[in-house]
């Protein structure tokens, strides 16, 4: 996942991916419709758009499943949310405020920035709203020094 910039999806689509990850990778169309307060027909359309990115697989008449790449991407999205929440909590916001503000901002923050923040904070593992995983992180073993001239 080194070649993502984190801005491939609209913030809204990012929320779909995170929801699928919460559900261990699969959600029914009706669950998605309920969660996002929209029509099942809208969900089917969004699933189609996500399927075109290769992050999600459409399971006809059932719902949507994250592909392996989609799962990695969603893991990055959660990591970005939690890192931003952590940063905001350092500047006077309560955990609830930081979590909610991070949700509004996160869709506009690139992976490069997230990795830099992660490094500058010393690769934290705990945020205000959950663990910060490092699977797709700047600090993964073997993820450094490769690819240079
Ligand atoms: Zn949060
Ligand atoms: Zn890190």
Could you characterize the architecture of this molecule?
The chain has 149 residues and is mainly alpha-helical. The protein has helices at 11-22, 29-36, 40-53, 68-89, 95-105, 111-120, and strands at 26-28, 56-59, 63-66, 126-127, 130-131. The protein has six helices and five strands, in the order αβααββαααββ. β2 and β3 form a beta hairpin. The longest helix is centred in the middle third of the chain and has 22 residues, at 68-89. The two termini are 20 Å apart. Mean pLDDT is 90; it is low at 142-149. The site of one zinc ion has 5 residues, from α4 and α5. One zinc ion binds next to α4 and α5.
Compose a concise summary of this entry.
With 149 residues, the chain is mostly helical. It has six helices and five strands. It has a three-stranded antiparallel sheet with strand order 1-3-2. A two-stranded antiparallel ribbon has the order 4-5.
Structural class: mainly alpha
Q: Ends: how far apart?
A: 20 Å
H/E topology pattern = HEHHEEHHHEE
Beta-strand percentage range: 5-15%
Q: Helicity range of the residues? A: 40-55%
Please give the CATH class of the largest domain: Mainly Alpha
The total count of strands amounts to 5
Global shape: globular
Q: Count of helices? A: 6
In the CATH classification, which architecture of the largest domain applies? Orthogonal Bundle
Instruction: Summarize the main sheet.
Output: 3 strands, antiparallel
Q: Order of strands in the sheet with the most strands?
A: 1-3-2
Ligands (ions, cofactors included): zinc ion
Q: How many domains is the backbone divided into? A: 2
| Low-confidence runs | 142-149
Radius of gyration (CA) equals: 16 Å
């Amino acid at each position: 996942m080194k070649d993502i910039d984190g801005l491939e999806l609209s913030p809204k689509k990012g929320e779909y991916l995170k929801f699928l990850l919460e559900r261990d990778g699969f959600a029914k169309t009706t669950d998605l419709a309920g969660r996002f307060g929209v029509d099942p027909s809208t969900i089917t359309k969004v699933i189609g758009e996500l399927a075109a990115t290769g992050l999600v697989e459409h399971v006809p008449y059932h719902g949507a499943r994250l592909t392996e790449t989609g799962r990695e991407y969603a893991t990055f999205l959660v990591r970005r949310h939690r890192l931003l929440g952590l940063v905001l909590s350092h500047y006077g916001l309560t955990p609830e405020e930081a979590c909610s503000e991070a949700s509004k901002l996160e869709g506009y923050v690139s992976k490069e920035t997230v990795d830099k923040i992660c490094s500058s904070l010393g690769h934290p593992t705990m945020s205000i709203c959950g663990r910060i995983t490092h699977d797709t992180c700047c600090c993964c073993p073997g993820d450094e020094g490769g690819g240079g001239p």
